Amino acid sequence: MFLPFWKGWGTEMDVIFSPLVPWPALYVAAAIAALFAILAIWRGLGGWWLRAPAMAVLLLALANPSLQDEERDPLSDIVVMVVDESASQRLSDRESQTAQAVEALTTDLTSRGMELRTVTVPDGQGDAGTELMTALKDTLSEEPKSRIAGTILLTDGQLHDAQRAPTLEAPLHTLLTGRSTDWDRRLIVKNAPAFAILDEEITLTLRIEDQGAAPRDIPEQASLSIVIDGAEAQTFQVPTGEDLQLPLTLPHGGMNVLQFNVAADETELTDRNNSAVVQINGVRDRLRVLLVSGEPHAGERTWRNLLKSDSAVDLVHFTILRPPEKQDGVPVSELSLIAFPTRELFLEKVDEFDLIIFDRYKRRGILPALYFDSIRQYVEKGGAVLVAAGPDFASADSIYRSPLGDIMPAEPTARVLDQGFTPLISELGARHPVTEGLEKFAPNPTVDGIPGWGRWMRQIEVKPLQGQTVMTGIEERPLLTLDRVGEGRIALMASDQAWLWHRGFEGGGPQLELLRRLAHWMMKEPDLEEEALTAIAEGQTMSLTRRTLELEIGELEITAPDGTVTMLPLEETSPGRFTATFEGPEPGLYRLKEGDQESVVALGPAAPREFIETIASGDKLEDLVDATRGGILRLEDGIPNLRMVGEGRNAAGRGWIGLTPRNAYLTTNVTVTPLVSPWLFLLLAMVLTVGAWLREGRR
Predict the structure, then answer these.
(1) Most buried of 169, 223, 333, 613 (most Cβ within 10 A)?
(2) What's the pTM value of the predicted model, to 2 decimals?
(3) Does 415 lie in the same domain as 275?
């Protein structure tokens, strides 16, 4: 316990008490002494006025008063200045406004003998935005609170961590950059699914908003362009300030990148928030497959079991059990339970199938030429047909001799080669995604270039006409040939022995994987495209893959959101795959191009968090500033003057901001001297006690 005694420049003297007994005991003794004094007065003792001081002297002696002399060095006040250097601060002339204010305030504070702690705040990691309060809290944690005279924020007021604001005991001021005439237009995607089913319509919700002091002559409609996977833009005139419902059907499976862009006005702050990127993964609900088997054979059930094992496949299968030319006297009414709907399947509803498989089928008069012509048109319009050829393909009744032959990638020579052979992946097939790395799925390792899978026992000799031969058989004759026809695709497998792999003959082979890849390639899945340019984004890093059948490619052209073009060489890491990684300097939409392949990839949002709200405003800081009696002033009105104000008083006004002097100091030396000698207390108490005794004795 101490009492201030005297203060001088650099020194302070105080009276301190260091009781010889605990304070509670001293309080009890004082209470007893007061009781005795009152009793003496009540009894009318003549020496009460001497006994009371004697007890007071004894109590004072027990309190042990001393004189404490402190030598102090005064400490300067500290002002923390937080400078916002995020992306939104680079709009318009905000950088120059900030620089001028920093220079003027630094000069003023230094001339007043104050210490300035300046901390700059860049963009937050991972599109976290402006983390002003985090920076302020971290800075204040390293400084003594008793020396903080005030805090000054130089910002546009658009911070994203207000919830982390520290507790402040000194005034907090905000100096806003920007202009009161600023305005900006932004595009908002309010609703967009991450996944969508192909051929099913989804609805996206967009909104175009004008922020700030938008000019009165700005049209109420804006030009909105929509680009899907980097294709040609579609432009529409849409109203601003209201929700827009956009119906959409995804064009393909896999990742669909949709870019929306609103035409910029030359008077708005920035066009960085005029764009939005939506990535939607297109998935197939069900794969509808029509399997047509020409006659029962060992591989028929294998095809059926493979297709039925996939829960995502809806299979329609029919087999010709009894050819029309068979004359055995069986009544027609007993040939089937129902009439097979061939017209409905091959004319009316053929477009509803995703894939049609002909397994050892030959012309028997059941399907007339009109039906085959319908299937040909189905392929040209975007359908897919797989032909698993048996001996029938080499006969006069081959379906090659139907209108379907016009789109076949190979022509039969009428030879059937009945001998064992190991299917091989061709040089082109090693680069094609359908057969690339297929040997990895073999039950046994590859030896001397021969994959470790079982042999097939028959091959139909065909003469390639067009397309790509990805697998070969006997003496490198074409075994699996793929081709694009119009908008559709067709595949010819010149053997009906694939079922041997499924049955495990000589170890079996990857029939299921081969069929899966074939189906996905024919369904135009992006992962199985032989010519493709893809990018996978992780943070600001993109992994780039150029898949091609060519042996060499050029450099990859990367166009950044700001228009900067970078040429990046690609390295072949496996047959047909050229890869590279690229670190994007900023979030946004990047355009990729190599040869005739183009793609887009979004690193972070197309409009970073910094550009969601660009109009300078102190609304988010108002409560924090008011709690410390600080102020929010605009730098466009001039750099405010600094004033010293007392603690608890209003610290801001028109054209000025206030700082609170803290008068902090550092104690360099302390000297403690007893106020009075204990013997003197004892002597004084004895004198007063003897005096009281003598006074009362004479009475």
Answers:
(1) 613
(2) 0.64
(3) no
